[in-house]
Input
Amino acid sequence: MRKVIVSEFVSLDGVVEGPGGGEPEYKHEGWTFDIDPDPAMYEYKLEELMESGALLLGRVTYEGFAAAWPERDDEAGFAKKFNSMPKYVASTTLKDPLWNNSHVLQGEVAEAVAALKEQDGGPLLVNGSPTLLKALYEADLVDEYRLMVFPVILGSGKRLFPDDARAKRKLILTDTRAYANGIVLNVLEPVRG
Output
């Protein structure tokens, strides 16, 4: 059974909107660029990507990735992996995705993702995609959260977790790392049963 791993850049106040730009309607777009990069952080992100079997994205994040990655070529391997791996998109409006090896999920999102989890293959990696995240959260389909918490308070924007969730969820911290630039990685798993 495949795992769903949510990997997010998140502000201290829980915002996941526009971390890398590409969302000009959001007043804080590109907020991650305000923090000096730490090479160790990007080494972790590359390891995470290489261990993943597929990307699971919402339409807006998918379109941002599809606009950025196909033309890139890099020595580290991010572009090669992104461009070659399967990509599953939760969308009711996207009909014919053009990015290599992309597939639009059919039917209800929670059922489609539950079916993907039953297939063989590596973990399904979710980046960005706050609307999809809320659906995955409500259906209890997330197996692990990998949250890179940036030392910034944005005060507005789409948040990681729903404001109107039906139930509370307890998580257990399984790993944490602090980077030289003040970013803290927290790896958490839901407590079930």
Notes: Residues 7 and 153 are 19 Å apart (CA to CA). The first helix runs from residue 39 to 51.
